[in-house]
Amino acid sequence: MTTAAAVQDAGHARWTFRLRVSSTARAALGAEWDRCRWVWNECCSKSKQTHLWNKNRPESTDKRTCGPAQLDKMLTEARRSNGWLGEGSSVPQQQLIRDFGKSRAKAQKDIKERLPMRQRAGMPKYKKKREALPSLNYTKRGFRLKGKRLHLAGGIVLTVVWSRDLPADPSSVRVYQDSVGHWYCSFVVPAEVQPLPETGAVIGVDWGVKETATTTSDTHDLPHAEHGKKSAAKLARYQRMMSRRKPQRGHAGSKGYREAKWQTAKVHKKVARQRQDTARKWAKKVVRDHDALAVENFRPKFLAKSTMAKKAADAAISATKQALVEMGRKHGRAVHLVHPAHTTMDCAQCGARTKHALPLSMRTYACTACGAVSSRDKNSARVMLVRAGLPPG
Question: What is the pLDDT of residues 172-186, one digit of tens each?
Answer without folding.
Answer: 999 999 999 999 999
